[in-house]
Specification:
The complex is a heterodimer of chains A (about 280) and B (about 300). Chain A has about 280 residues and is α/β, with parallel strands linked by helices. Chain A contains 10 helices and 5 strands; from the N terminus they run ααβαααβαβααβαβα. Chain B is α/β, with parallel strands linked by helices. Classes of the chains: A alpha/beta (about 280), B alpha/beta (about 300).
Amino acid sequence: MNIKDLQLKSIEYRKTILEIIYNSGAGHTAGSLSCIDILNVLYNNILDINPSNFNSIDRNHYIQSKGHSVEALYAVLCDKGFFTRKELNTLNNFNSHFIGHPTRKIQGIEHNTGALGHGLSVAVGMAIGLKLDKKPYKIFTLLGDGELSEGSIWEGLMSASKYKLDNLIIIIDRNRLQITGKTEDVNPLEPLREKFLSFGHAVHEVNGNSIKDLQSIFKKIPFEDQKTNIIIANTIKGNGISFIENKVIWHHKVPTKSEFQDALKELDKQTLSLKND
Amino acid sequence: MIEKANLEIFAETLLSLAKKDKDIIVVTSDSRGSGKLTNFGKELPDQIIEVGIAEQNLVGICAGLSAVGKKVFGVSPSSFLTARALEQIKNDIAYSNHPVTLVGISSGVSYGQLGSTHHSIHDIAVLRAINNLNIVIPCDNFETQKVIQSAVNYSKPLFIRFGKKPMLKIHSDNKSFKIGKGIRVKEGKDLVFIATGETVQRAYQAIEILEKDNFKCTLISMHTIKPFDEYLFLQSIKNTRGIITLEEHSESGGLGEKCASILVQKKITTNFKIIGFPDEYMVNGSQSDVLDHYDMSPKRLVEIAKELIS
């Protein structure tokens, strides 16, 4: 898929995210908007995961450790045909499988996440397992930057280094905000790149809201022989909607009717300008 | 007859199974020595993953290995495995439904004088409250071997715990063993002992004394705590004069309280005594001394039994 088509998809995904959050009355708005471009490129360009191969182990795998941004994942999986939009519209309804965090009850989701700091160790286990069987597939995992405060992340990073997991790709959604405020105020992470390097990993930074940059960085995998690939994806929390961007309050704020309409207008404008480009 | 420690049987059984099945993977947290898995590591180095002292990571990695088709045994001291990594057990194994077997070694007060940091007298209680996780506590070498064999292809998340001291032979080798089905060791109508794990042998020794005094006793090895064998429990207590439950665990949330909840809900009124560890700053000592102190010496059990039905 070319860059423009993917950019258009990102806009559609952003609309889906806002619609399902607005209609269901709950969701993690800004974090889903920050990572949606990453999921877009992964699912449409890189992963080759689809409803027909999902039940096989012999494929690439994706674990979303920052489970609260499940609306982004729902938007992409719905587009890939794992479930219908009608099913997705049951989000947060009584007894719906579509809840506020990923669960394996939804076709297309590999692991139940939500409590933070869990996804990496699971991804490490999968990557070790595939290596033991000499399978060529890769494990991708998306971590939030806030969850990097969890000690279990650093346990997982040590094992990834020990087992030379070059089949593991860790993407950090580095939007620099968490529920309380700036990550650097809550619990400073920097110098983050140096931390990862000191653990023995190969690290690249990228604009995580640029389809073009994301495409080119994923093509460089494996970054280095026998090293785990880490992508620090610098993103804007709430990316794509001017009044949501970089506002702490939007971590899990649900748009009002007028905010929702304004957001859709912004997205429509973006579509129009892209199409006229 | 005194046999080996259940720990040794676990390690021997797992090694022999793993030699025939390369998908069996053991994950340890600097615990291969404590888990008697040093030989396993030497003989099958490609089937053991070592994460260092990092129980949370251990459980997560177990889930991941299982997700790509491995038959996984996560082995770590029960105290650390079930407290430090409880959230990983809950979310990554049970909730995500990966059929990993978690093995809590040196459980209960096996670590004796090392003290409360190393004791796991909470594990049954906390894990009972986690959905989609079954719990087995083998009492002797036979049950240990059988549960490890059963665990390899078991379809659900499983937690197994045992200690490290040589055990009495309780069962003959031709008994049938099934996860979820307790085993009747002795049958008698005066008293029923419901015990689990290593406390079965203490009940067994107490019953041998009681029998000399003409008391007829039933002994159930309730090796599976979850799913609980309610049928066997209810069958075995029919017309008895008293029930004693034993566990190397806190009195809170364990085997005894499980039995109590069934009795109350079935409106069964009988003499009933839960023996476990009380809610107090516990005494220090060897496993045997601590069990003795908390009423689990055969002599003390006999006294309690006689009092209960007097």
